[in-house]
Structure formats: structure tokens, C-alpha cells
Amino acid sequence: MNQYTEIVIVGGGISGLAAAYYLERTARKQGLTIHTTIVEKEAQLGGKIATQRQDGFVFEGGPESFVTRKPEAWELCQELGLQERLVGTTSSGKNYVLRHGRPAIVPSGPGSFLATPLLSPGGKLRLLKEPFVKPRSETSDESLGSFLRRRLGDEMVDNIVKPAIGSVYLGDVDEMSVQVSFGRFAEMEQQHGSVVKGMVALMKEKSAARKASGEPRPAKKPAFATLQGGLIELVNTLAERIQGEILRGTAVTTLEHNPAQTKPYALMLSSGRMLRADVVVLATPTFVMADLLDGVVETAVIEQLRAIPYNPVTTVNVAFNRRDIADPFDGFGVVVPESESSQLLAIEGMSAKFPHRAPDDQFVLRAFVGGQNQPDLAELPDNELIDLVRRELATIFDITAEPTQVHIQRWLPANPQPPVGHLAMVAQVERTLARQLPMLYLTGAGLRGQGIPDCIRQSRDVVAHILADLQPTAVHA
Ligand SMILES: Cc1cc2nc3c(=O)[nH]c(=O)nc-3n(C[C@H](O)[C@H](O)[C@H](O)COP(=O)(O)OP(=O)(O)OC[C@H]3O[C@@H](n4cnc5c(N)ncnc54)[C@H](O)[C@@H]3O)c2cc1C
Q1: Superfamily of domain 51-92+309-415
Q2: Ramachandran bin of 93, using left for φ above 0, alpha for ψ from -120 to 50, beta for the remaining angles
Q3: CA neighbours within 13 Å on the CB side: how many for 149?
């Protein structure tokens, strides 16, 4: 008889892989005998992490780096021995907003804020009032747009923040939850009355804690980091370390729960095989979770998971010979406000941000097409998409040269756009699941934050829950 606790993880993106890795590592430490199986629909692991290396280029079709302010991805890379492979940004980078068809630099300090053409004198004055704006009395969720409009004024939101956030979340700041995307700022308002005051207090706290501990100031981390060979290195290294089974090119088609069975979960696979499990972790987009749980849990849960909106995006990496370009764009990116006529959501300076991504004589830009307002553009045929991107690059940067490489990656759909009240809804879904489907857990970008560090953090949290729930019944080595 199989003495192992069988754990099946559905989805081999960063959330599923991190869940398997931390499960095995923590179970080993606790002397528990578990066996993990990851089931991944696609032939490649990584989900949205999609690096393609060719001819000396590192093209990223999905995420291209992660923030280090949220430490989980940085820590995981260190723990996996990838420290020598990490590459940080050398500066916090120049960021731009499209204004009258041309990139205008986003101010990064008080001096440049006073000089920027992106805000009128009234808009700048409104920004300076932030520390004196009364905090909201309620603590319930609100939209990110509503939060930022109250704190910083409409101009700052419409001209700078909305396009910047929109290009990341592919949605509208006036619809998405502040608790999911910028929960820390909402907490600062509640605790300190203002975001500026909250940030000052945080810096003082950190400095006092450091002085009290007597520890030297830690080495400064870069704001963003990636890996030499692309983010797929993190995926491949995790896959190498995971000792359980990894089934690639195999979808879970149905899930059944029968509490009378010793192993109460049965998962049917597209290969025809059936897996039995004590524990199931769903690490897929939330609409796939809804499909798998349909008929297994109460309908309200299915409707709630299905209601989380996702928007499509297609990324187009375009490389040029440096010598063909008079003035290569030196910024990390340009975001496009709704008021502009451009059909792009954003353009990223892929080789300006990380020069190792292209041979020295080459220069790479990446265009984002689609999103909430122009979803159909993400589905244009390749030739029309390339024409569109080249037209836009000619208008915005005067680039008319023939590309040396083009790399297209479609995400239909791509990122979740968590609406107001999202976290409360997720907590409610999890309470119902704990009652009706014990030992089944959810993790992933659609739940509590979609950045790579958010996904890793959620999977770490889920692992802690699983092992706590397993302790009374688990088999010890
Ligand atoms: C264009 C783009 C750019 C981004 N840029 C950044 C960035 O620079 N930095 C950053 O931190 N984040 C970025 N993100 C967000 C981040 O990449 C994702 O949120 C994160 O990778 C999602 O990981 P996940 O494992 O939760 O989900 P996914 O990566 O979606 O993985 C889910 C997996 O489940 C599999 N699956 C689905 N159905 C089944 C089934 N029935 N059976 C088995 N398997 C199934 C899928 O094939 C997939 O592999 C970006 C996202 C996109 C789309």
C-alpha cells in the first residue's frame, strides 16, 4: 500500500512549481513523506514565463523581470543557487509617457516634478497636498483609481499612473481593487493618515531597527532583477530540484471528490490516466479552477471564480541593428494614456533595461498590444500585427529600419484584473472550499497579486496551510 501523502498540483507555472518545491523542502525538514505530481497542460513548463533564446538574443514573451522590493523571487533565486545568474537593473531607469505622440519623461524627483509638462501647475499643487488630504474613514476595499484620485488628484492619475498601471495589469485603475494591487499604500493611509507620511515613517522604522540590531546597512538591491538566460532559468532550475513527477503536455480534464475513499480526490488527465490524491493544489488561472470545480463545489464559488476578468495581450519583441537607428531609445518603457491615438498599450526598452539581452550591435524594443480597451488587436494575424507595431515605432521613435528579428507571443487571455472586493471574495471562496473540499487549495496570479514575487509568496503560504492541515494525519518518515 502507498504510504505517501499524494499531492497533485494542477498547473506548472511559477505558482505550481513554487508550491511543489516548497512542499517537498518543508516536508523533508518536518520528516513527512509526501509525493508530488505536477500536471501541466502545455509541453513547456513556466506558464506565462516564456523565454526564447536565439542568435544571441534573450526574448521574453511574458514577464521580463521581477521587483526586488517584494523579496520572494529574489530569495528563491538565491536559495536555488542562481545568485551568479541574477542581473539587476543598473539604475531605477527612465520611464516615459506618450504625450502628443512623443515620449515625455516621467518625473522621478521633486525637482523634475516641478518641471514636467505632464502636469499643469494645478496638478502639481494638488500632488503637494497629499500629506494633508484627510484619510478615508472606511477601511473597506475601493478601486485603485478612487484611492489615487483622492490622494493625488485626477491629473496625476490620468496622465501618469493610469497608463503605467494599465500597461501592467492590462485593465482600468478605476475598476481594479486597491487592496490587491497597492494594499500597502492603503494601509499607510489608514495608519499614518497619508502615503507620504507612511513612507517617511517606514524609512525611520527600518533605520531605527537596523541601528538597534547593530547590523550594517545591507547591500543595496537593484530595483528589478532578471536572470542571464531569461526568467525560464528559474522555471528550469525549479523543475530540476523537484523530486516528484512532472507531467508535461497533459491537462487535468475533470476533478472528482469522494470523501469515502482513502484518497478522496480523483483527477482525470487528457492522457487517459487517472491520478488519486490526498491533497490537490489548483495553480491555474481562476477560470480554469472554475471549470475543474464545476459540479464539485457549490455554484456560488464557480460563479465567483469565473467572474474574475482577464484581458488579452500580445507582446511583440522587435530587434534592430543599432547602426540603423539614429537615436536609440534609452528608457525602460513608454506607456500610452487613453487620450493618445496610438494603438499600443506600452513599449519597453528591453535591451536598454538589460543590455545582456541582445548582441552589442543590436537593440530590442517590445510592444504590448491589446488590453481591456483594444482586445481585438491582440488577435491580429502576425503580418498585420508587425505592420501595426512598425507604424507605431516609426511615429513614436522615427524608427523606419527593417527589423532583424521579430518575436510574437500571444496571451489570450493574459493577466487577471481583480475587481473591488476581490480579496474578501477570495477569502469567502476559500472558506467554502475548506468546508466542502478539505485538503484542496488554490494558489496563483488570479488570487492575491500577480507579479512573480506575489505568486511565490502565495504558494509559500499555501504550503504552510497544507502542512499544518496534514500534521495530525501525515505519515512521518
Ligand atoms: C505579457 C506579460 C508580462 C508580464 N510581466 C511581468 C513582469 O515583468 N514581472 C512580473 O513579476 N510579472 C509579470 N507578469 C505577470 C506574471 O508573469 C504572471 O502573473 C505569473 O507568471 C503567473 O504565474 P501562475 O503560475 O500563477 O500562472 P500561469 O503562468 O498562468 O500558469 C498556470 C499554468 O496552468 C496551466 N494549466 C491551465 N489549465 C490547465 C489544466 N486543465 N491542466 C493542467 N495545467 C493547466 C497553464 O498551461 C499554465 O502553465 C506578466 C504577465 C504577462 C502576461
Answers
A1: Protoporphyrinogen oxidase, mitochondrial; domain 2 (3.90.660.20)
A2: left
A3: 11
User: Quick check: CB of 452 below 6 Å from ligand 1?
Assistant: yes
Q: How far does the centroid of ligand 1 lie from the alpha carbon of residue 19, in Å?
A: 14
Give the distance (Å) from ligand 1 centre to CA of residue 47: 4
Could you identify the atom of ligand 1 that is nearest to the CA of residue 409?
A: 1
Quote the ligand 1 centre to 417 CA distance (angstroms).
13
Residue of 250, 284, 287, 311 with the most ligand 1 atoms within 8 Å of its CB, for mutation: 284
Note the pLDDT of residue 123: 93
Q: What is the pLDDT of residues 167-192, one digit of tens each?
A: 777 778 999 999 998 899 999 999 99
Nearest Cα neighbor of 453 from 190, 29, 72 is: 72
- pLDDT band at 114, cuts 50/70/90? confident
CB 342 within 8 A of CB 336: yes
Cβ atoms within 10 Å of 463's Cβ, excluding its own: 24
pLDDT tens-digit map of 361-396: 999 999 999 998 899 999 999 999 999 999 999 999
* Whole-angstrom distance, CA of residue 289 vs CA of residue 5: 22
Q: Is the CB of 47 under 6 A from ligand 1?
A: yes
Nearest-atom number in ligand 1 for the CA of 16 is 25
User: How far apart (Å, rounded) are the C-alpha atoms in residues 332 and 116?
Assistant: 18
Q: Is the pTM of this model over 0.85?
A: yes
The class (CATH top level) of 107-213 is mainly alpha
Cα separation, 95 vs 93, whole angstroms: 6
Find, among 117, 97, 165, the residue nearest to 332 by Cα.
97
Query: Which is higher by pLDDT, 264 or 95?
Result: 264
Q: Ligand 1 mean position to 14 CA, how many Å? A: 7
What is the distance between the alpha carbons of residues 431 and 438, in angstroms, rounded to a whole number? 10
Read off the C-alpha cell for 269: 488527465
Strands 279-282 and 5-10: parallel
The structural domains of the chain, with segments of one domain joined by +, span 5-46+233-308+419-470, 51-92+309-415, 107-213
- Nearest alpha-carbon partner for 310 in 220, 415, 465: 415
- Residue 290 alpha carbon to ligand 1 centre in Å: 17
Ligand 1 pocket member 283 (CB < 6 A): yes
